[in-house]
Write a structure and sequence with these properties.
Layout: E1 2-5, E2 9-13, E3 18-22, E4 40-43, H1 45-52, E5 59-60, H2 61-71, H3 77-94, E6 97-100, H4 103-109, H5 119-123, H6 138-145, E7 154-158, H7 183-195, E8 200-204, H8 214-223, E9 227-231, H9 239-247, E10 251-256, H10 262-269, H11 274-287, E11 292-295, H12 306-315, E12 320-321, H13 343-356, H14 360-372, E13 387-390, E14 395-397, E15 408-409, H15 415-421, H16 423-430, H17 437-441, H18 452-458, H19 469-494
Parallel strand pairs: 7-8, 7-13, 8-9, 9-10, 10-11, 11-12
Antiparallel strand pairs: 1-5, 1-6, 2-3, 3-4, 13-14, 14-15
Helix pairs in contact: 2-3, 8-9, 13-19
């Protein structure tokens, strides 16, 4: 009998326990893909040892038993073998492990990400019965184990702030695009991430493919079993990068495509020929079965044609995120907001999105109901509670875009020390919704998502508590339109 861990499983060892999680929490899936989300699981100390000897390549039960016996040197070899077989079989039912009578059978049961496999094929997968597995949530376990201290699971690394495009809506002013992360610093940060059990890394810039060591960075991330998301315009994609991307089953890509009209796209990026290069890069990613999502921010320049990008993406069974949120630049001048939709344009776009998607207002209502039940002492967002960002010069700030709120520098302090004890991190972590009294009392609060970087960047003084009125207007529009939809639905149901 052969066993292997599934290709999309991340494992972290906390010494007294182990943790395994399915990368679908971090990666991208095709549209309508119906495979079951496996979730996560806490392992006992001995279970952590048993899992640690598994690989993404099949190993025989005898070989696994011998590796475990090197750790439990006083254990009975037959007892270890029986326990290992039982343990791996249990994890196979949970969806974390696959088995086979041969290496080939084992590999075939671990289906890799592919655009050629129909969504219905996954419904017949042997991943089963996950919904009732946990009596206590993993988060409850972590809260109890770490005494409520937030754990860093997601790290955003800007490996360069340089870019070959000059996108009109970008929050990084061109004059601030000056350098690249030192490669030794990057590798040191990865070592620190392993030591504190970070799960997911986002590599971005600027344009990350400009960094001469980009492929080596990806290779090291793969060796460390990190989930990786690469944010890139893909204009510099080459065969060497594709080859390394394909090696990591935990890697996904996000690329921006603003219009299927080359002139409109290129005017937004200010780089002639960028449309063709980005489109071809996306197609190459798809041809190589690497998970991808398209980002299509809606602006004045593409408000009449963003749907073409969505349709094009749908044809390739990928998602295009068509969001109308454009945040102000980190220099607080608002100079990049001339492309942002006015409230009238915004209302027209929302109406258009709802017309094309019959479930638009259904989802909006469900989200509003969830927020309606939120408490004043709830966290504002995940900033400094599960994620943080490192710039190319080592500066650490709360999230992408909030570049002028430096909470530390990894050239001067460890990432762990910054996360656990930096003064500004402690301040942000202590903020709750009741620190925004205007929002707590607002009649549209359940239609709004509080974002401190949006507040800070739009405020001349960089104050994260100064609420941006623009986003208040968005909340009002969403509420008005949803109430209109509910009224129309009620009248329609009353008709004979």
């Amino acid at each position: 009998m052969f066993f292997k861990k599934r290709h999309n499983i991340i494992f972290r060892n906390y010494n007294t326990f182990g943790y395994i999680i399915d990368n679908r929490l971090f990666g991208y899936a095709e549209i309508n893909r119906s495979d079951v989300y496996v979730g996560d699981k806490i392992l006992s100390q001995s279970g952590s040892v048993f899992f640690s000897v598994l690989d993404i390549k099949p190993k025989s039960l005898n070989a696994l038993t011998n590796e475990i016996n090197k750790i439990f040197v006083d254990g009975d070899i037959q007892a270890i073998k029986n326990d290992a077989c039982e343990f791996y079989s249990m994890l196979e039912l949970d969806g974390f492990v696959v088995s086979g009578e041969t290496v080939q059978e084992c590999e075939e049961k671990d289906r890799k990400y592919s655009y050629n496999i129909l969504a219905t094929d996954f419904a017949e997968s042997d991943v089963r019965a996950h919904a009732t597995r946990h009596k206590t949530s993993t988060q409850d376990f972590f809260d109890e184990h770490f005494g409520g201290m937030p754990q860093l699971t997601n790290l955003h690394i800007e490996i360069t702030n340089r870019c070959n495009e000059r996108c009109i809506h970008c929050y990084i002013p061109h004059k601030r695009r000056t350098g690249y992360i030192d490669s030794d610093l990057f590798y040191d940060v990865l070592e620190q991430c392993i030591n504190i059990n970070v799960l997911h890394l986002t590599l971005t810039g600027g344009e990350p493919l400009l960094h001469m060591d980009f492929c080596d960075f990806l290779k090291k991330c793969r060796e460390y079993n990190f989930s990786i998301n690469v944010l890139s315009n893909l204009t510099l994609l080459d065969d060497a990068i594709i080859k390394e991307m394909k090696q990591n089953p935990l890697l996904s890509v996000q690329a921006s495509l603003y219009s299927m009209n080359p002139d409109i796209h290129d005017k937004i990026t200010k780089l002639k020929g960028s449309f063709e290069r980005t489109k071809n890069g996306i197609l190459k990613i798809i041809d190589n079965h690497i998970p991808i999502q398209i980002s299509c921010p809606i602006m004045k320049q593409n408000k009449f044609c963003y749907n073409d990008v969505v349709k094009w993406a749908n044809n390739y069974n990928i998602i295009a995120d068509d969001d109308y949120i454009v945040i102000a630049g980190c220099d607080h001048t608002g100079s990049n907001l001339s492309c942002r939709l006015s409230t009238d344009e915004l209302e027209a776009v929302i109406n258009d999105k709802a017309h094309k998607d019959k479930n638009y207002f259904v989802r909006l209502e469900m989200e509003a109901e969830r927020k309606r039940d939120s408490r004043p002492d709830n966290f504002v967002c995940s900033v400094c509670n599960s994620s943080i960002c490192i710039a190319e010069d080592g500066n650490v700030y709360p999230c992408a875009g909030w570049r002028d709120y430096v909470v530390g520098n990894v050239n001067e302090s460890t990432l762990s020390d910054i996360w656990n004890s930096a003064e500004k991190v402690t301040y942000l972590r202590a903020l709750r919704m009741n620190d925004f009294p205007k929002c707590i009392k607002c009649a549209e609060r359940e239609f709004c998502t509080m974002c401190m970087v949006r507040n800070a960047n739009e405020n001349r003084l960089g104050d994260p508590l100064a609420v941006s009125e623009y986003f208040c207007q968005i909340a009002k529009i969403n509420k008005k339109m949803m109430l209109g939809w509910k009224s129309r639905s009620a009248h329609a149901s009353d008709r004979p």
